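To illustrate the input format used throughout this study, we show a single complete record. The first block contains the structure-token representation of the backbone; no residue identities are included at this stage. The design step must infer an amino acid for every position from geometry alone.
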């Protein structure tokens, strides 16, 4: 009953660690994923030849199983023999980051892993770019708008429904962030709990400690917070989301 919530807020230190890490990954990863996917999709609208090949290459990482991708990245970012640090050392960086083994860099390594598999979001933005009427660009060009002005006043407003969809799904996904962090922390033994997220806490309480009641209480809090954030996003869309029908 209510004892679960009393334990959660006043006696469970791992709860607050997981909340802090989850807020961090949400605040940092969502804007970066939106910006990176938006830029990547915009780049893929430019080639005159080989568009299908380029789009396939950028989308392939999204098809790689999450566990396999995470294990590969823990090897790539290995501070002792990983190719990333070897590459940095070749440029004279004597003390490259320890990545997953360093609490200051572990979450940034997860961010990079997420940006590498941006293809699923990128393909949605690409569809949005291709849906912008060319007549609007022609009209803007006749008015003397340069490339940046066309992007700012034509492309970006018409892309806001796609950005809004990506932001809402990104918030929901980041609150449930689990697989990459769980696999990476198991590979490097994350004693500092720098990769300990809210979904990981629910999993451990339910399936490691067999505290099903407490895990269910944690899940209810997650549901309520997700609903509140989604509701706020839905309310604020009236101010910045522009739909093709003029609404």
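Output of the design step:
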């Amino acid at each position: 009953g209510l004892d679960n919530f009393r334990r959660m807020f006043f006696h469970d230190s791992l709860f607050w660690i997981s909340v802090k890490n989850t807020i961090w990954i949400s605040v940092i990863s969502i804007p970066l994923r939106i910006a990176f996917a938006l830029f990547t999709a915009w780049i893929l609208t430019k080639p005159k030849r080989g568009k299908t090949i380029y789009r396939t290459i950028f989308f392939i990482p999204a098809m790689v199983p999450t566990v396999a991708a995470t294990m590969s990245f823990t090897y790539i970012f290995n501070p002792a023999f990983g190719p990333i640090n070897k590459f940095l050392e070749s440029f004279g960086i004597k003390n490259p980051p320890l990545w997953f083994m360093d609490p200051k860099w572990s979450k940034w390594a997860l961010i990079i892993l997420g940006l590498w598999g941006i293809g699923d979001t990128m393909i949605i933005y690409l569809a949005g770019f291709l849906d912008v009427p060319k007549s609007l660009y022609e009209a803007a060009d006749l008015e003397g708008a340069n490339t940046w002005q066309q992007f700012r006043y034509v492309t970006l407003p018409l892309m806001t429904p796609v950005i809004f969809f990506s932001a809402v799904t990104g918030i929901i996904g980041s609150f449930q962030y689990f697989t990459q962090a769980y696999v990476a922390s198991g590979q490097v033994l994350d004693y500092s709990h720098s990769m300990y997220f809210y979904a990981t806490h629910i999993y451990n309480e339910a399936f490691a400690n067999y505290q099903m009641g407490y895990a269910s209480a944690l899940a209810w809090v997650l549901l309520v917070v997700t609903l509140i954030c989604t509701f706020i996003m839905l309310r604020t869309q009236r101010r910045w989301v522009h739909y093709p029908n003029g609404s």
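Structural context for interpreting the output: The longest helix spans residues 13-44. The mean pLDDT is 92.
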